[in-house]
Automatic annotation (TrEMBL):
Protein's organism: Novosphingobium kalidii
Protein's UniProt keywords contain Ribonucleoprotein: no
Name of this protein: GNAT family N-acetyltransferase
Domain N-acetyltransferase stretches: 1-144
Xref: Gene3D superfamilies: 3.40.630.30
Entry keyword annotation includes Transferase: yes
Keywords: Acyltransferase, Transferase
EC number: 2.3.1.-
Entry superkingdom: Bacteria
Top EC class, one word: transferase
Single GO molecular function: acyltransferase activity
Length: 147
């Protein structure tokens, strides 16, 4: 929750509250990746530098939340989290990883670097704090097929 409080711009209302995160994790099909400032899995007594939360469905996984503490951005933390998320999703049998983000989200560059491609759009889906509407873009990462 400490990462959530500083990583998400309050102008967009994207952060979840504690209850939403707890409820998701209690479902059993949601999975968290939490890393320290070196991009390694964070121990219980370590401060988190970033995290992801994903949900498993039939042959798909959806990236629900992805965040890095601002002071650690640009240091490879996001790459570590996304790599761990992709690896764990694949181990659960996912054939693709989906995510949805607001147009203009700076994380788009990272997602595209990993091979995510846009597959859909929701016009005026998000609303910022000033009431302006922003499109949502759905991206997919297709896992390479193995023989």
């Amino acid at each position: 929750m400490a990462v959530m409080e500083v990583a998400f711009d309050p102008a967009y209302g994207e952060a979840w509250n504690r209850r939403q995160v707890e409820d998701a994790l209690m479902l059993g099909n949601c999975h968290a990746q939490v890393v320290n400032s070196q991009g390694q899995p964070a121990a219980d007594d370590e401060a988190a530098a970033g995290f992801s939360l994903s949900r498993t469905g039939f042959e798909e996984e959806e990236l629900l939340l992805f965040a890095v503490v601002p002071e650690y951005r640009g240091m490879g933390i996001g790459r570590s989290i996304l790599d761990a998320t992709i690896t764990s999703a694949r181990s659960r049998g996912a054939k693709r990883l989906l995510l949805e983000m607001r147009r203009g989200n700076p994380a788009e560059r990272l997602y595209r670097t990993f091979g995510f491609s846009p597959i859909g759009e929701r016009k005026a889906y998000y609303r910022n704090a000033l009431g302006s509407r922003i499109d949502a873009i759905t991206f997919a990462y297709e896992f390479p097929q193995t023989l």
